[in-house]
Protein 1
Amino acid sequence: MKAFLALSRAIGLLNELVGKSVAWLILASILISATNAVTRKAFNLSSNAWLEAQWYLFSAAFLLGSAWTLMSNEHVRVDLVYSRLGRRAQIVVDIIGTVLFLLPFCVVVVWMSWPVFLAKLASGETSNNTGGLILWPAWMLIPVGYTLLGLQGISELIKRIAWLRGDLPDPVVQADAAAAEL
């Protein structure tokens, strides 16, 4: 179990580094948006590339930051039944949800998006908008983001199994405490 916990920590460190890095993309997107709005209103200048850069940055923040969100226990959850369960039952629900839904979904998305990304990369396809950007970086975000999310799902699975075995403190309490420190 120690090797699995070491793997879980490594995945967590990777996703924390990526998540904290891409969080800055929101600021970059805001600055681009504000600059684009000012230049459009003040100087009657605008660029489709700047508009597309905004959605590239938001997409990167969302897709690459989703694993960090999962690790921090900040993802959306329907708590109608879950909140009424005991802690052990909640952990079992998390394990079942990860194994039956999260991990298979991540595998399918990566499997299906990878060939599309490769096709966009090979063709050098650009946006249909005048002055638009190349498309492959945006398409690359999908398999990379879902790979990171799948890895974090494996990490969360390891932590929950370790908790059930008594090898680790409650992973959700740890994630909530870490999020409170930010």
Note: The two ends are 29 Å apart (CA to CA).
Protein 2
Amino acid sequence: MVIQQPSNQIKLTNVSLVRLKKGKKRFEIACYKNKVMEWRQGIETDLDNVLQIPNVFLNVSKGQTAPTSELQKAFGKDMSTDDIILEILRKGELQVGEKERTAQLERVHAEVISIVASKLVDPRTKRVYTPGMIEKALEMLSSQAHSNSSGEKDSKSGTGTPATGEGDEAKPLPPPPAATKQHMWTGVVATKSAKSQALDAMKALVAHQPIPITRARMKLRITCSTNVLKQAVKAPKKPAGAADEGEQKAHGTVKDKILSFVEQVESQDVVGSEWEVVGFVEPGAFKVLSDFIGSETKGQGKVEVLDMAVTHED
């Protein structure tokens, strides 16, 4: 026997909602899981694969569609239903279930750990750490950050135990180091990209050193015309208002400056009228080095990346 459903009842399962509050009303659209993010990233372009049904709702779970009068009042009479759906897709807040949030957070967490593990090494052996060791080190920083945060709250509320000197007069606690403020790590979140969080995690690990750790060096090939190698490099200009000490002194040669960026030279040679050096550079110095070569050699020098992260693996 076939069970008939009321023709006006909309049943939506396996649904993710995108909600947008406009005026005093909240509007919803029903989408397929994971497709909204792909559409926002430009991976998915077919709206039929994103929307479960091309309608705007006041309440998806109750199947309550938004009246045309409400849509026109909130979005204006010039906007069609398709335009309203696109605006909700672009600006709305994606609602997902607890399981989906957990799964998404786990995916981002695994990606962050993978990126960090591939970019950091033991400074003594230049060997990479296992993802498990990176994860434990970040957990240590996260626990420390939450502990410090709780301590600051207790101190502000007066429930903490202040440091005291002679007598009963309390002395203020010393301010935390600058690195602690700038490179705090509190854990992975699902609202930021894995790459940006991996960069934050690397900065925190290098700043706090829960384990001996450093950024893996880049391997570069730098070439430059011999005509400019011996040219003097002027010291950087002083800011306005600084004391004038006469003509700026030379700051070494172009070759000296280039070699100052290279932590370890692997090879160095002159072939004809071109000088070439292959060596290892700290990633943070790469942009400064590239800008220097671009400005000082006037097109007669270049930097080539041979390896983004040089590591030794077991």
Note: The longest helix spans residues 131-157.
Protein 3
Amino acid sequence: MNSPADGMPKDGHCAIAGREALAAARLQLLAAARHRLALHLPLLGRDDYGNDAELAELKRVATSGRRAEIRILLHDPGSALRDGHRLIALSQRLSSAIQIRTPVEDVDRQCASAWLLADDGAYLFLPDAGRPQGRMALGDRAAQAPLQQQFDGIWERSVRASELQALDL
């Protein structure tokens, strides 16, 4: 089984198994992104999107210019805020480029899959957000399209995570 740490196969696809391979895959996709990212996160663990390297790549994308856009669907933003997750702090500092919404419809809240989509057709998909097993691909728009379509549908039905807005008092 290939992992991002082992080197990406020529077709740009690989299976992900284990936390280290998952972290390497996330970082590889974040580093490859240019202006847009979409993240669907039923769960946001402390180590997910919170280390220095991942946050630096997220910040780079968020500050990449007028087309910069990071959209995050987060099922439990209150928990991430209470835990002091570093991704929340970054989103508060770069709120013009990083938007977070919360799914409200039951069908959307029951979706247990997690995924990261980049603007170049790259994706990371975990069928169960609680398990570090899934697949990734670099530059496969055909395989990414159904995930993007599902993300866009959930995004449209979701509400802004207003509890995450930074208060300037």
Note: Residues 1-6 have pLDDT under 50 and may be disordered.
Protein 4
Amino acid sequence: MSGLNLHLLQPNTQRTTPSGCVVFVHGGGFLGGAPSQFYPYAKAVSRQYGIPTACCEVSCLLTHPRAKVPIESVEDARRCVKYLQEKADDFGLDPDKIVLAGASSGGHTAAMAVLGAEEGLGLAGLLLFNPVLDLRFQERWRERRWCTWLGSSALRMRYGKKILEEESPIFNTRQLRQPVLILHGTEDRLVPLEEVEHFQEKMEGSGSDCKLVTFPGEGHFFFNWRVSPGNFYRCVGLLGDFLKQVGVLS
């Protein structure tokens, strides 16, 4: 995959029929990050629900300085999903039962991989952890952290306002056939809750099934196992419920 890694974890349980799969896209503020961010989730989901999981690497500024990040990162995620669908028979997968998940900048990547795909990806569902939805970062601008201001300025200088809007999920909302679930901390200072609520309202207004589950008092990294084991296991449980909703689990 053009120098990018895709890590596939198969469960120990024997399967007689093709099964669904969860594909995780890492975050890292578009600067860095690695598939290993989602190893704890991949292992927990595979063990608890008995399905394969995959951790997808996408282009980042530090690892792929010549890439047009985050624009090419979105295409990386699409190629990852398409690769698994094309190799579904080899991996024992059902190509129509793949759920794409992403966190933070990876949430932006996963969302745009679906919203910006003209022909669709044939996914069963989309799961977003504290996703970046507006590359202009305008919501509650004064309350954001300095690293957000710096990153936003760099993106504006490189791409301009028009392209940033074209590449922002919040400006690309449309009706999707697959359900969307968003998990978000109410005290997130990197991606304000209002940004996510605005996105959810626009998605529902377009006819999409888009649900938001909030974690009161929690910040941007609430879902990480090292930050809060309690939140981690709650997220795994919510993911399991979502997999049942979209037909990946019986």
Note: Residues 120 and 190 are 29 Å apart (CA to CA).
